Structure formats: C-alpha cells, structure tokens
Amino acid sequence: MLGRSSREKEKEKSNAPAGENPEAIKPPAGWYADPDAANSDGTRARWWDGEQWTETVSPGHTAEAPQPAQDAAAQPDSGPAAAAVPDRPAAAATGHWIQPPPPSQLRIMRIQEGPQAGETTIGDAGVILNTVRRVAQDSRVYVPASVVDVAQHRGLTIGAVSVRGLGHQDFGLVRQDAVAFATAGNSRFIVGTIADGVSEAPNSHAGADSASKAALASVREFLDAGTRLHEIPWPEVTETVRNNLRKRAELAFGAKLRNEKVDDGTWARQVGTTAEVLIVDSEPAHDGSFEYVRAVLAGDGYGYVISPAGLLPLGSGKARDNDLKSNKVLPLPSDPGPGYPHVQPGRIRPGEAVMITTDGIGDDMADGTTEVAGYMHAELLQPRTPHSLLETVSYVAYQSDDDRTVLVVWA
Fold first, then answer.
1. How far apart are CA 116 and CA 246, in angstroms?
2. What is the pTM assigned to this prediction?
3. What is residue 37's predicted lDDT score, i.e. its pLDDT?
4. Is residue 156, in this structure, part of any structural domain at all?
5. How far apart are CA 299 and CA 231, in angstroms?
6. Do 83 and 162 belong together in one domain?
7. What contacts 37, CB < 8 A, 6 or more positions away?
8. Which of 165, 269, 336, 387 could connect to 403 by a Cys-Cys bridge, CB 3.0–4.6 Å?
9. Is 250 exposed, middle or buried (0-12, 13-18, 19+ CB in 10 A)?
10. Contact 331/298 with Cβ under 8 angstroms?
11. Judging by beta carbons within 10 Å of its beta carbon (0-12, 13-18, 19+), is residue 235 exposed, middle or buried?
12. End-to-end distance of the chain based on CA atoms, in angstroms?
C-alpha cells in the first residue's frame, strides 16, 4: 500500500475515484487517474481495489474515463457507484497497437542442408548458417539444450519454451535462460516466470534457474494466502529472489572467497540473472476478458499482447543511454536500480495472448515491425503443440544467436 501520512490520507479521500467520500458508496475496483501530486498532467493511472489505492500504476498513459453503468436500475444516476471498470485500460502497455508484416511479405525459407537443416530461416541469415554445434563444456550440472511444455487450464492455454542459442552452441556454453510456471490461489491464477542469466557470469545458468523458481514460489505463496492480484508486494518478491541467489552463490563459491570482500556485486559476477513474472487470472471478467500482471523484477526482457488486430508491445526493461537502448543490465542479486520492479497490468480477450520473452527473441521482434515480429505474430496467434512451439522459436535469423525463452498464455 502507499505510505501516506494522516494528512495525506485525509487528502486522499477527496482524490478517491469519482468523488468518493467516507459516507459514500465506494466505487468498484478499476483504473482511475492517479491522485498523486506527481501526476499533475493526468498521464498515469493507478489501480483502485474497491477499498483503497494500491501500488500498481501504469506510467505513460492516461486512464480511460470510467464508463456509465449499463444497468441504470442497479446503479445510481451519478456518483461513485456509477463508475465501471474501463473496458480496456489504456495502461495495458507502454506502446501502441502495431500491425506487423503479414506472412506474404516475410522472407521465410526451410533450410535444406548444413547444421540447421530442417529449421526455418527468416530474411538473410548470413554466416550464422555456418554455426558449429558443440556440446556444452565446463558445466557441473546437466542443462538441457531445450525445454518445452504446453498445458491447458480452465479457459486458458499456457506455453513455455526455452532453447539454447546458436552463439552458445558455437562456443560450447550451456543454455543460460530459464522458465517455470504453475497455478496458484486455489488454481485461479496461472503464474509464470522467465530469467536470463548474464553471459559474463560463468554460473548464470544456475542463477537463472534459481531466480525463476524463487520468484514463482514467492508469488504463489502470496496468492495462496489470499493476496489480491494487484496488491502483490513486488519489492518483497524481488528481495526473496535476491536472498535466494545470495544463499545459492555463497554455498557454491563462498569457500573460495574467504579472503575477499564479498557483496552483491561479487555474487552477481557468478550467478547474475534477470527475472520476470507473468500472472494471468483464469476467472474471466464481466466482459469475458482475462486480467494479467507483468512484473519485471530486473533485466531486459520484452512483453507483447498478440491479437488478430496486431501486436501490442509492452516494452522492454533494457536500460537507456540517453535516447538509445543499452544492453547494460544490473543483474540480481544486485539492486536492479530505480524503476524496478516495473509492474504492468492489462487484459487479454478470447482469441488474444500475452507473452513475455527474453531478449533472444525480444531484440528480434523489437517494436513489432520486424520480419521476426511478423513471423512470431502469425505463429503464435493460436495455441501450439509442444513440438510446434519448439519449432517456432528455433528460427534462424541474421545476428540472432542468443538463448531464447518464451512464456505465452492464450485466452
């Protein structure tokens, strides 16, 4: 909850949605203009849970004005109870709907020979077609080159896939991405996590695995305890992940560093990783849509809503150097810095999907206008079988050699 003084709480009463006051009927949960003084231009929405303001905000977008109630007999003609949850929060994403290149404009070919024979190439693959596939070396644990699973839950389908990138295959490195998912809250919520181990950290594959599982367990614990979707304390989730990484790193490497100064930076150089969470409510809203929350705890992953209407980029956690995106990452267990955790709520409708991905695919899809974006949009409009999902993300494209991980939920 927002930390406010008693004076601010009194002021908050006058700023509650639709003119709420202590004696009035409180408005329903939904998106409203953020009453915080910093939102003087009205470009930020904050989630009202039906009782009070929450920490969930959506920067960069104006909240849609509450729509009139459809059942006039059940609602007063005016006042707070007349407010309804916006049809689709403008805050669902940091971008705008994009129409990616249609399949007819994509340069897609099936590779006939060489190490990538049988896979799909998009555009000009260049010398990447000559990648030599080597077994992973110097790994103390077995890390599968790829993992994939597809499951159905109530009216939703979830797909999870992670594959070893061509660059890692060429240099004999293990897959450093990780993915996990489960249900929570009496099976009401689907919770998925992805993590991308930092290449410079020699044991980042262990860090990614640890972070994805710790984030999943932490979020499930809150939801199982009855915490509302928009009230999950994401800083606590992040700290749980950081503590887990510290303990894992200390157990594995602490004995070797007895005479050195050890801090989060030390552990990050060993097991550094990003972490991201996606939660989807399997209980549909009154309009048939499904709420989701995407939370970037640290890192440079990407998110998209996939619809027959196009792609809705949810943005990337990549750092920025002035106006340019940077590959700089402050990996966990280090403090990821200001702006994290970055929480994005939204909705998907039947026939749509929400997807989070590591930068191995996110960089290729970018703002939704690239050939890979067109390919992924066409391939992921409908739920896939495990085999076809694995095949989809195993494309070959110019300079695309990083590990690739996707977590997608179809409505």
1. 39
2. 0.76
3. 62
4. yes
5. 22
6. no
7. none
8. 165
9. middle
10. yes
11. exposed
12. 30
Helix (H/G/I), strand (E/B), else coil: 396: strand
Residues of the chain with pLDDT under 50: 1-14, 18-24, 59-94, 320-326
Distance between CA atoms of residues 152 and 154, nearest Å: 7
Over the range 161-199, which residues count as b (16 or more CB within 10 Å of their CB) and which as e? bbbbbbbbbbeebbbbbbbbbbbbbeeebbbbbbbbbbb
Distance between CA atoms of 351 and 276, rounded to whole angstroms? 24
What gap in Å lies between CA 246 and CA 271, rounded to an integer? Answer: 9
Backbone region of residue 399 per phi and psi (left: phi > 0; alpha: psi in -120 to 50; beta: other values): left
CA 329, 331, 334, 336 dihedral sign is positive
Range of the domain at 385: 103-410
153 plus 279 within the same structural domain? yes
Residue listed under structure tokens 């024979």? 117
pLDDT number for residue 58: 59
166 in the same domain as 31:
no
The two tokens of residue 295 are: 């939370």
Whether residue 241 lies inside any domain: the answer is yes
Same domain flag for 81 and 111: no
**In total, how many domains does the chain have?**
2
Reduced DSSP (H G I as helix, E B as strand, rest coil) percent helix, strand, coil of the chain, to 5: 30, 25, 45
pLDDT of residue 223: 98
Q: Are residues 155 and 259 in the same domain?
A: yes
Q: How far is CA 8 from the centre of its chain?
A: 33
Distance CA 244, CA 247 (A): 5
pLDDT at 83: 30
108 and 39 co-located in one domain: no
Give the model's pLDDT for residue 328.
Answer: 64
The alpha carbon torsion through 261, 265, 266, 267 (nearest 10 deg) reads 130
Per-residue pLDDT at 321: 42
Contact 280, 189 (CB under 8 A): yes
* 29: amino acid identity, one letter: A
Total number of residues shown for the chain: 411
CB–CB of 355/81 below 8 Å? no
Distance of CA 107 to the CA centre of its chain: 29
Q: What's the CATH code of the domain at 115?
A: 3.60.40.10
Q: Is 159 helix (H, G, I), strand (E, B) or coil?
A: strand
